[in-house]
Task: structure prediction
Amino acid sequence: MKIESIILRELGMRLKYPFETSLGVMHDRRILLVEIHSDGLSGWGEITADENPFYNSETTDTAWHIVSNYVAPRLVGKSIASASEFPALVAAIRGHEMAKGGVENAIWDIESQLKGISLSKLIGGTLAEIGCGVSLGIRETPQSLIKKVEEELRSGYQRIKLKIKPGKDLQFISAVRKEFPEIRLSVDANSAYTLEDVRLLKKLDDFGLLMIEQPLQWDDIYAHAKLQSQIQTAICLDECIHNSRHAGGAIEMGACRIINIKLGRVGGHSEARRVHDVCRENSIPVWCGGMLESGIGRAHNIAMSTLPGFTLPGDVSASSRYWHEDIIEPEVQVSPRGTIPITATPGLGYAVKRDLINGLTTRTNSWKAQAAVPA
Result:
């Protein structure tokens, strides 16, 4: 594959409903899309950074800067045999996993088209369908949360995840568990607590939760090891895990019993597979987390979720939960059994709505390989 051109776009997309976590309330998404041309084909990837540095240190604007000034210039005009060679080309760039991951995933899309196989098959996926859960933002009252949970269960989702923060935790979880005693229920704190809250966190053991996701500081694996030794509920690490080395260290320290893999957070499909493999070798189940992606990011998440170690329902839910109109067709739909079937179509498995993307685009940058000079 010769990387003939790269186009970076920023889109503005409004969520159907506000989404609240311990980090704040989101109404809109500034989404970065990467389109790469090679061998007459287009590949698409999504950079999942938020516009604020609250989930991690990356933002929409830092990602734009890194791709524009460091990643794209290193890549355009290069010839590579496989997308798996991309990480070596940008190894000198420390961090910025989301920026690099969005570019890498676009190359995986092209490679799967060139080979005439689905993206899921190319990366080693084996599942014919994936189980789906939902992530519910913080609500004003337990009653309004119960109503939302009931709605999502009617849609077939296999796991309900509640966002929590201090002051909106035990009462809300208790109300949901009392109303739905048998459902698969988990909670996500997005680093809202500290070890000083261990007494409160121990009370979560009373609710039979599947997991508590990232309860402590976003970059502290050691503190999670101390907490896991004091509570029965399984800790799932998210923000702490940026690569397979972090995953291996967390497992060895006993900091978690489950790991959430987000494509952007670990830098793309290549490193996601390595994290998956480390977890599978150590019998640690994994699942796919979400970053309120558009359909392009969602399609990549679906492909990753077909790897055999993804044994828990992820946050890959229907397009219609978040967007009035998604930028792919058909839009992602979830069956009444709470699953998404995997398409055998080469590439992402979904068509990109170029006209809609163009209408939502607020800025672009592009790079083109120089033509060879005749001898």
User: Anything to note?
Assistant: The radius of gyration is 20 Å.
